[in-house]
Amino acid sequence: MSNIADRPSVAERYDGVAISFHWAIVFLIAGLGTVGLLFDDFPKATQPFWINLHALFGLLFFALVILRLLWRIGHKPPELPAEAGEFSRRTSHPVHMLMYAIMLAIPPLGVVAFIWHGRAFNLGLFTVDFGVKSDRAIFHPAEDYHGLLVYTLFALIALHVAAALWHQFIRKDHLLLRMMPSRD
Q1: What residue spans of the chain are helical by DSSP H?
Q2: Could you give the count of Cα atoms lying within 13 Å of 125 in the half-sphere of its Cβ?
Q3: CATH 3.40.50 is right for the domain spanning 4-179
């Protein structure tokens, strides 16, 4: 267990709103990714339900990513401490921006694939149907790019997690704690 003196100070930590956005987005990515990867394994009769649920939660994900970016614009993240190392200081921001760009691109491609597949958003009490007929020439490439970007995001997330764990357990500079909910 680390010494309390070794933990990041309040000034070095992300604020509670940024931490909440981060973890909400993490859980949405995990859920959306799981459902997206398992579509073909669901019984055929339930697939429309799961696809609709995936689309609706994808829209929630998109909204949260936009809100997170707006929050970040108005609330500068804490600087990386010097002990994080020069490589981390140079690569952290560009990698985060690439992740944000991909997270912003994935949902619109998913919506295009969803709508041009001839689907409607079923919100339970009502349905939002754009009346678009299925058009393989549109939905198929959108679906392919959506999937490609999802796998790219998964790879970047794996890199992000590996870097956080490396900082926490190898470098022992406690960067991981900056994004953890505080028990103080």
Answers
A1: 16-38, 47-74, 86-115, 136-165
A2: 0
A3: no
Cα separation, 100 vs 76, whole angstroms: 15
**Runs of H (alpha helix) within 127-176:** 136-165
Structural contact between residues 36 and 107, judged by C-beta atoms closer than 8 angstroms: no
Structure confidence by residue, pLDDT tens digits, 82-106: 888 899 989 999 999 999 999 999 9
Average pLDDT, the chain: 92
Report the length, in residues, of the chain: 184
Q: Report if pTM > 0.85.
A: yes
Q: How many C-alpha atoms does 100 have within 13 Å on its Cβ side?
A: 18
Domain extents in the chain: 4-179
| Residue carrying structure tokens 């394994």 | 41
Q: What pLDDT was estimated at residue 7? A: 61
